[in-house]
Specification:
- The structure is a homodimer of 242-residue chains.
- The longest helix of chain A is centred in the last third of the chain and has 18 residues.
- Chain A contains nine helices and eleven strands.
- In chain A, 44% of the residues are buried.
- The first copy, chain A, folds into two domains: 159 residues, Molybdenum Cofactor Biosythetic Enzyme, Chain A (3-Layer(aba) Sandwich); 70 residues, 2-Layer Sandwich (Alpha-Beta Plaits), CATH 3.30.70.
- Helices cover 36% and strands 26% of the residues of chain A.
- Chain A is elongated.
C-alpha cells in the first residue's frame, strides 16, 4: 500500500519572528496519524504572495493533501485566499454562501468591507465550517485552507475529517531508557532495525534537570512486528542500562 | 541597506509526527533579531538524505545564513553531517580536531564506532563548540549545523554569534487591543500602514478564556517612526475600543 502524505504550510511573519510559537503542526500531525496520513514536510513561510502561491502549487503536486494555516482574517496582511486562487489560476470573489455564514455572526452594519473580505473564496472551492468564529475556511482541490488561531484551526478539522482518504495506519511504540548513553545503544539499535522490514527506529536523547537518557520510538504498520521489536528494545535497555 | 536573511532547517521525523514540538525556531529567530538578521523561511523536514541535501543547497543559495538543527548524534538516523557534505560536494571523514573534543568528555573505551561518528565533519568545515555535551556542531560555508536538543542548540549559538554579519536591526512595538474586533480595526490599520514607508503592521487576533482582542505588531528600522505609529495605534484603539 502506498503512503498517503500531507504537506503543511504555516503562514505568517509572526511565526518567523519567533514571537508566536506554532502549535498547529503538532495538532494537525497527531490528528492525521489515526487517519493513516503521514506529514512529509512542513514549511513556515512569510506573508509574501509569491512565496505562498509557489509553495501551494509545489505542495499540491507533491503531497496527497495540503493544509495551510493563517492569513484568512479581515486585515490587509490576510492574503492567503487570493494566493490560493492565483496558485490554481482560479478567479476569486465575495461568495454568497460565505456571506450567509458571516451573517450568522455579524449584524448587517458590522459587515464592513474588511469583514466582507473573509467571504472572498476561490471559485469552485467548498467551504470548511468554523465552529468558533464562523468565518469559513475552504478546500481547493487537495488544499485545505484554515485559520491560524489554534482554537479555530482545531475546530475546522472536524469538517475536514470526512474528506480525507487515508492509507495504512502507522503505529508507534516508545521505549524510554533513562540513564543510557545514546552512543552505547547506537550499534545494537541499528542491528535491530535492520532485522525487521518496514520498521523505523528513531533515537531521541533527552536531558532533564536530574535525568538524561534516550527515547526509542519504533514506527511501522504491523502491530505484531512492533510488539517483537518493543520486547527486543526492552532487553537491550536491561542489558546496557544502569 | 539590504536585508540580511536566514533560512532555518529543522530536521527530524519526530517533529513531523507531532510528538516533539519544535522550540528551536523561536529561539534562533529571537537570537537573530538583535543581530539584524531576519528569518525568511523555516522548513521542517524528514530524516531523508535526498531532501536534506537538496534543501541545504537551495537554502544556502537563497539566504545569507542557514541554520540546521537535528541529526548529528551517534545513531543510524543521524545523517545530517553526511548530507551537508554531499550538498557541497565535500568529502567527509573522522576529524582529529573533533576527536580531541570528544576525548574531553569520553574515555577512550567509550569512544566506540557510534560515538566516533560524531567526529565525522565535512572537509574544510570549522567546528562549533558544544558547552553541554561536547560533540561539536560545524560551519560549512554559510550553513551552521547544530544539535536538535534545545539546550545544546542554545549553547552552540554562543560560538556562532561572532561569525554573523547582520544588517540594519528591525525593531518592533506591540499594541494590545483587548475587546476589539479585528474587522473594525482593519481599514484604519491599512491606512496607517500606507502612510509610513518601511513600516509593516501585523494584526494578530487572540481568544483567551475570558478575553478576545487583537495584538498589533509594528515592525520597522526607524525607531522614531515607530514611536509615531505606536501613538497612532493607541489613538485608534481608544477610538474604536470598548
Amino acid at each position: 500500500m502506498t503512503d498517503v502524505t500531507a504537506g503543511i504550510l504555516l503562514i505568517g511573519d509572526e511565526l518567523l519572528s519567533g514571537r508566536t510559537k506554532d502549535t498547529n503542526l503538532s495538532t494537525i500531525a497527531k490528528w492525521l496519524e489515526p487517519l493513516g496520513v503521514q506529514v512529509g514536510e512542513a514549511r513556515i513561510i512569510a506573508d509574501n504572495a509569491d512565496i505562498i502561491r509557489q509553495t501551494v502549487r509545489e505542495f499540491s503536486d507533491r503531497f496527497d493533501y495540503v493544509f495551510t494555516t493563517g492569513g484568512i482574517g479581515p486585515t490587509h496582511d490576510d492574503i492567503t485566499a487570493d494566493c490560493i486562487a492565483a496558485a490554481f489560476n482560479l478567479s476569486i470573489s465575495e461568495r454568497a454562501d460565505a456571506m450567509d455564514v458571516l451573517r450568522t455572526r455579524y449584524k448587517e452594519e458590522e459587515l464592513n468591507a474588511a469583514r466582507r473580505r473573509m467571504a472572498r473564496i476561490p471559485d469552485g472551492a467548498s467551504l470548511i465550517k468554523n465552529p468558533v468564529s464562523k468565518a469559513p475556511g475552504f478546500q481547493t482541490k487537495n488544499v485545505f485552507t484554515m485559520a491560524g488561531v489554534p482554537a479555530i484551526m482545531k475546530g475546522m478539522l472536524a469538517d475536514i475529517e470526512h474528506r480525507i482518504k487515508g492509507g495504512a495506519k502507522v503505529y508507534s511504540r516508545t521505549v524510554e531508557a533513562a540513564g543510557i548513553g545514546e552512543g552505547d545503544a547506537a550499534q545494537p539499535l541499528a542491528e535491530i532495525e535492520k532485522k525487521f522490514d518496514g520498521v523505523n527506529i528513531g533515537s531521541y536523547p533527552f536531558f532533564n534537570a536530574d535525568l538524561h537518557g534516550v527515547n526509542f520510538v519504533v514506527r511501522g504498520r504491523d502491530e505484531a512486528v512492533l510488539d517483537v521489536v518493543e520486547a527486543e528494545l526492552h532487553q537491550l535497555v536491561d542489558r546496557i542500562g544502569i
